[in-house]
């Protein structure tokens, strides 16, 4: 896991996170778990351990701790506003937000954000009492109200709307958010990551980080299977072991067809500015190559080139191992296995998606905001998951489509599904087909419509008779992860 314990002092603040919470409500449960998770992730966190009755005024060491934190997390619970101590803390936090650009992340634990914003519900009762008690100090009360109004408007974490009451999920999301705030290089991986760890472990072992040669590892697989996600997760785990590291994600999507390689080299250059000197615009491809060589030569770099489908692009970015310093690692993701073979990468990893249990879990997170289907929906969920077969993109899209829908809606959705895929999924698959030449595309359509699951030799004969070159076509489709042949030769 990424460690930030030294980042706080190095960059001029003392704590990564200050935790503000109502002790009576959450000290021994939610806030305690949150604190432990933050610490375990290497995030240097301050919480006030003092359980003793407090004096009137907030202590100066607390004020200092707030001031010296980069991020404040405020856990709003029903009793938060009844404590003047908490309210003072919050006012100080929002001051620091204004003056020192402190990042404030509100967590709405068992309370609606609008109750915080408008001081309704339990907050209204608390304020009745405060107004009675601090009649002479209405400015102070007004300051608290303003602080709550501001904090309630910030984008934060609402236990019920985000994680449907799953505290551990919420905590995981908060930790991830904090990591990405602390480290601009930390990549957000997925809203509900499932089954990523074992894939990441496999790839990291292929990378053999620490040895002196330059290695390229390629991840290939069909669209939506999770290549970008795995690559980002790999990046997060190892980037701190390199002198320079960058992840260029979704390259294909970001490329303008006409500018091609030149634009890509510029993208890579831009990704590294901040670490390297700024250069004039790159004039042509060769100049780009020289630039890359000059910048990376002798440096131990980690570069992720995500979603590349043109060999010339790869050759222009990572054509020779000696462009990069000893110990460098390049991770490439692509839909086209052949690209990796032609680049002679050290290792190839076939991204195969999720197994059955993981698929059901990911689908459930999107359909129910829980790791398991609701009781009445178990069978229908299994039908959908079976149909989609482990492709995270499809599980996500279908799950979100079915969130909070009735059983009847589910039934008709499933019926329709067998005729049309939702357009978000279709779009992804079509981009993959668009790259194929006319003949191979024709073969793909024939196979998809008529020959799915049939004997390969039989299909070959028929396609042969239709004037195709089936063996070549099978190879291309297999390399692009559009076709698989099982051990029964089907
Ligand atoms: N293991 C996983 N757990 C949860 N969500 C995932 C996982 N893998 C992929 N996803 C989600 O599925 C979608 C497609 O994944 P992505 O990595 O973009 O696929 P690819 O790069 O292969 O096209 C993304 O929205 C991603 O967040
Ligand atoms: Mg991708």
Could you explain the architecture of this structure?
With 490 residues, this protein is of the alpha/beta class. The protein has four domains: 5-181, Toll/interleukin-1 receptor homology (TIR) domain (Rossmann fold), CATH 3.40.50.10140; 185-350, P-loop containing nucleotide triphosphate hydrolases (Rossmann fold, 3-Layer(aba) Sandwich); 356-419; 436-479. It contains 25 helices and ten strands. It has helices at 5-10, 23-26, 30-40, 60-67, 84-100, 113-118, 122-133, 138-153, 159-162, 167-182, 196-207, 227-238, 251-254, 260-272, 285-296, 311-318, 337-342, 356-368, 378-388, 392-402, 407-417, 423-434, 438-451, 456-465, 470-479, and strands at residues 15-21, 45-46, 69-76, 103-108, 157-158, 215-220, 244-248, 301-305, 329-334, 347-350. The strands form two sheets. It has a five-stranded parallel β-sheet, sandwiched between helices. The protein binds adenosine-5'-diphosphate and magnesium ion.
- What is the domain tally? 4
- Which spans of ≥5 residues are poorly predicted at pLDDT below 50? 1-11, 274-280
Principal-axes shape call: globular
CATH topology of the largest domain: Rossmann fold
Helix content: 40-55%
Based on the coordinates given, report the CATH architecture of the largest domain: 3-Layer(aba) Sandwich
Largest sheet features: 5 strands, parallel
Total number of strands: 10
Mean pLDDT across every amino acid position:
85
Q: Beta-strand percentage?
A: 5-15%
CATH homology superfamily of the largest domain: Toll/interleukin-1 receptor homology (TIR) domain
Name the strands of the widest sheet in spatial order: 2-1-3-4-5
The radius of gyration is 27 Å
Bound small molecules, by name, code or SMILES, are: adenosine-5'-diphosphate, magnesium ion
Helical run tally? 25
Distance N terminus to C terminus?
42 Å
Q: Give the CATH class of the largest domain.
A: Alpha Beta
Query: Could you say which structural class the secondary elements and strand pairing correspond to?
Result: alpha/beta
């Amino acid at each position: 896991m990424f460690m930030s314990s030294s980042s706080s002092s190095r960059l001029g603040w003392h704590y990564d996170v200050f935790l503000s919470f109502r002790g009576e409500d959450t000290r021994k449960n939610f806030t305690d778990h949150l604190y432990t998770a933050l610490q375990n992730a290497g995030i240097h966190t301050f919480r006030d351990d003092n359980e003793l009755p407090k004096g009137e005024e907030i202590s100066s060491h607390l004020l200092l701790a707030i001031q010296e934190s980069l991020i404040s997390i405020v856990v709003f619970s029903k009793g938060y506003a009844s404590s003047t101590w908490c309210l003072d803390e919050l006012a100080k936090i929002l001051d620091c937000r204004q003056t020192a650009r402190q990042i404030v992340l509100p967590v709405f634990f068992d309370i609606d954000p609008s109750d915080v914003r408008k001081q309704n519900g339990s907050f209204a009762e608390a304020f009745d009492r405060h107004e009675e008690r601090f009649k002479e100090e209405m400015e102070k009360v007004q300051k608290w109200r303003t602080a709550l109004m501001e904090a309630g408007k910030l984008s934060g974490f609402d236990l019920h709307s985000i994680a449907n009451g799953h505290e551990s999920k919420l905590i995981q999301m908060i930790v991830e958010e904090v990591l990405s705030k602390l480290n601009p290089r930390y990549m957000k991986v997925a809203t509900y990551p499932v089954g990523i760890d074992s894939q990441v472990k496999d790839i990291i072992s292929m990378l053999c980080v620490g040895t002196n040669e330059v290695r390229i590892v390629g991840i290939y697989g069909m669209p939506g299977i999770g290549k970008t996600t795995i690559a980002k997760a790999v990046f997060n785990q190892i980037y701190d072991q390199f002198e320079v590291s960058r992840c260029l994600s979704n390259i294909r999507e970001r490329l303008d067809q006409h500018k091609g390689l030149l634009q890509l080299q510029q993208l890579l250059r831009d990704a590294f500015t901040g670490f390297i000197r700024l250069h004039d615009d790159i004039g042509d491809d060769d100049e780009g190559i020289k630039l890359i060589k000059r910048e990376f030569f002798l440096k131990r770099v980690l570069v992720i080139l995500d979603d590349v489908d043109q060999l010339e692009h790869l050759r222009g970015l990572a054509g020779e191992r000696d462009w990069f310093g000893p110990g460098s690692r390049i991770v490439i993701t692509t839909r086209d296995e052949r690209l990796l073979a032609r680049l002679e990468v050290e290792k190839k990893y076939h991204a195969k998606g999720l197994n059955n249990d993981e698929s059901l879990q990911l689908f459930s997170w999107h359909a129910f905001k829980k790791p398991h289907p609701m009781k009445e929906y178990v069978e229908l969920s299994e039908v959908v998951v079976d149909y989609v077969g482990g492709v995270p993109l499809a599980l996500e899209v279908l799950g979100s489509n079915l969130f909070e829908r009735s059983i009847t809606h589910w039934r008709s959705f499933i019926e329709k599904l067998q005729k049309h895929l939702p357009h978000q999924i279709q779009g992804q698959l079509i981009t993959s087909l668009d790259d194929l030449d006319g003949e191979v595309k024709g073969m793909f359509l024939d196979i998809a419509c008529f020959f799915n699951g049939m004997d390969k030799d039989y299909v070959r004969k028929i396609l042969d008779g239709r004037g195709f070159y089936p063996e070549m076509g099978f190879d291309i489709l297999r390399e692009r992860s559009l076709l698989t042949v099982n051990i029964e030769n089907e």
